[in-house]
User: What shape does this take?
Amino acid sequence: MGAPSVEFWFEFASTYSYVAAMRIEEQARGRTVVWRPFLLGPIFAAQGWRDSPFNLFPAKGAYMWRDLERLCEREELEWRRPSVFPRSGLLPARVAVAAANEAWLPRFVRAVYRANFAEDRDISSADVIGSVLESLDLRAADWLARAQSADVKERLRAETETARTRGIFGAPSFVVSGELFWGGDRLADALEWPASSDGRRA
Amino acid sequence: MGAPSVEFWFEFASTYSYVAAMRIEEQARGRTVVWRPFLLGPIFAAQGWRDSPFNLFPAKGAYMWRDLERLCEREELEWRRPSVFPRSGLLPARVAVAAANEAWLPRFVRAVYRANFAEDRDISSADVIGSVLESLDLRAADWLARAQSADVKERLRAETETARTRGIFGAPSFVVSGELFWGGDRLADALEWPASSDGRRA
Assistant: This one.
C-alpha cells in the first residue's frame, strides 16, 4: 500500500494555516495533498465564540502574533501583520470549493494567503479575489459567479459540517487514514502516520 | 556566551506538561533547566474559564486525549487517562516551590506527573504527595508542612503572577532569553533560541 493521502483542512482567516499552505507540498514530498477549505466561524460559534480566540483571549493573541513573526522568519516567508483580523475567508473559500478539481487550486490558495498575510489586502472583497484570480490567468468574473452559486454555497456548508463531525476545532488540521492532527507543528507527525486502518504505528 | 538557560513553566494538572517534564532534561542536553511551577487556574479564571478548556470545549478535549495517547506511545511514556481531570496541582506546586533549591526537585516533579498520568492517583491528596516524597527518601511530614507555610503559599502566588505578566497563558511554556514558547512541540524551537538579547536569530 502506498503512502496515504493527506487531507489539509484550512481556513483563509487563519494565520497558522498560511504557513502550512505555503509549505505543505514541499513537506509532503509527492504525497497527495487534498485541499479542504472550510469555515471556522460556525465551529467557533457553536462553542460560544463570536470572534477569533486570538482576539477573545489577549495573551493567546499576543503570543500568536509574535510566534507568526518568528515562524515566518524561520520559514523565509513574507509576513505582514494584517491591519484587520480576522478577515472573512468566506468568498475565497467558496472559490476554492468551486475549484476543487482544478490544478490551479493550490496556487490560488497560496495567493489568497499571501494577499492576507504578506500584502495586507482585504480577502473578503470580490475585487481582491478577482485580482488574485487574474494573476493566475483565470477568468475572474466566471469563477466569482460560480463561487456564488447555490450549489457551491451548499458544498462549503457541507464541508464545514464534515469538519465538525470529524472533530476538527481549529486550523490548520490534517487527516491521514482517519487520524486527526491539529496545528502546523503536527504536519510532520501526520505525514508519518501509517496507511494501515488500525490506527497504530507500524 | 554559553547557551542560555531554559525556564520550564509547568502546571501539575496539565497533560502536555507531563510529556515535557519527562523529556526536557534529555532534550536540553546539559543546558540549565529552571523548573518553574505555577497554577493555570487563576490565569484561566481571569479569562472567564472555571474549568480546563479541554472540558469546556469538548472537541478540543477529545483531540487532546487521543493526542496524548499517541504522544506517549511515540515517547515510550506510560500513560493512563486519569479518572478525574483536571486534578488540582496546588499541593504539589507548593511542595515544588518549597523545594526550588533542592537537587531532587526534577525527580519529585516527574514522580508527581507519573502519579497523575500513569498511575491515576489523586495528586491533590496529602497522602499521595507524602508517599511520592517518601519514595524519594524524603521526610514527607517536613516537606508537607513547609509547603503549607505562608511564605511558600505567597511565593506560588507570586510565581503565577509572574507567569501572567510574562504573557504565559498555558502549559507547558518555555522562556529562553526572554522569548516565550508555548506547547511541548515548541521546546526544540526554544532550545535553538539564541542567548543574544535582541531576540533575533544569529
Observations:
- Chain A touches chain B at residues 43, 47, 56-57, 59-60, 62-63, 66-67, 70, 73-74, 164, 167-170, 179-180, 182-183, 185-186, 189, 201 (CB under 8 Å).
- Chain A has one domain: 6-192.
- The first strand of chain A starts at residue 6 and ends at 10.
- The mean pLDDT of chain A is 94.
